[in-house]
Design a protein that fits this description.
The protein is globular. The chain contains eight helices and nine strands. It has one domain: Rossmann fold, CATH 3.40.50.880. Helices cover 31% and strands 26% of the residues. It comes from Sphingosinicella microcystinivorans. Pfam families: ThuA.
């Protein structure tokens, strides 16, 4: 019998309630059948990739060079991901690992364009932005309804990132709207032998536990677990 699949959540960073959101995500991962470990140190997380089947990035570290308002925070929070770490992340997925990127993970590691390529889309300082945290409506696509057993249309309170520009090889599962037009907020793609899922929602526990969002996350974890376990294939 195959050992229980394992998941590592890389958690922490600037200006978000990561302890809160990682606690919720940990519960979902365990409910989905993953043995779980949480790391708040990127070097330790990269070193453990060989031990896990799924990596969840629920963090916010980037170069912080764009605006002077970040200057007081750079000493603590600014981070440039080394090329060796980026290569390890890519190899993890290409060789069959599963990757789930949550919310601020789409902003991480802005000096590494291969991170956006691996996700299939993400934050661009030239194009992307988000309105203030507030009421939003999420609509699952036809493909998204295949991944979730929850409502196809639901409301939540969140930051809805705009202009993440998922690439043409991504399957968009959900669009979010705060009154400025629908924006892709969740998608999946394949890279080599691995699977990648991106959920750009999830600012706090209110978002993660909204019933429609919770059902979508559980669906993503089920899809990623197929890759992790080899228990059958799907589309």
């Amino acid at each position: 019998m195959r050992a229980k699949p394992s998941a590592l959540i890389y958690s922490g960073g600037y200006s978000h309630p990561f302890a809160e959101t990682t606690s919720v995500l940990s519960g979902y991962a365990e409910m989905s059948g993953f043995a779980l470990v949480v790391e708040e140190d990127i070097d330790a997380a990269i070193a453990r990739l060989a031990e896990v089947d799924l990596l969840v990035v629920n963090a916010l570290y980037w170069g912080m060079t764009q605006y002077e308002r970040y200057a007081p925070h750079r000493e603590r929070w600014a981070y440039v991901l080394p090329d060796t770490h980026m290569a390890a992340l890519r190899n993890f997925v290409v060789r069959g690992g599963a990757l789930l990127v949550m919310h601020t993970g789409t902003i991480c590691w802005d000096t590494q364009p291969d991170w956006i390529r691996l996700m299939g889309g993400g934050w661009s300082w030239e194009r992307s932005y988000h309105p203030p945290l507030g009421d939003a409506v999420v609509e699952l696509t036809a493909e998204g309804r295949r991944y979730s057993n929850g409502p196809s249309h639901f409301a939540l309170v969140d930051e809805v990132y705009h202009r993440l520009d998922p690439s043409t090889d991504c399957t968009v599962l959900a669009n979010g709207d705060v009154g400025e037009g629908a924006q892709p907020v969740a998608w999946v793609r394949r890279e080599g032998a691995g699977r990648v899922a991106v959920d750009a929602l999830g600012h706090d526990a209110r978002s993660l536990t909204a019933p429609g969002h919770a059902a979508l996350i559980m669906g993503l974890l089920a899809w990623l677990r197929v890759r992790a376990t080899g228990e059958g294939e799907d589309a």
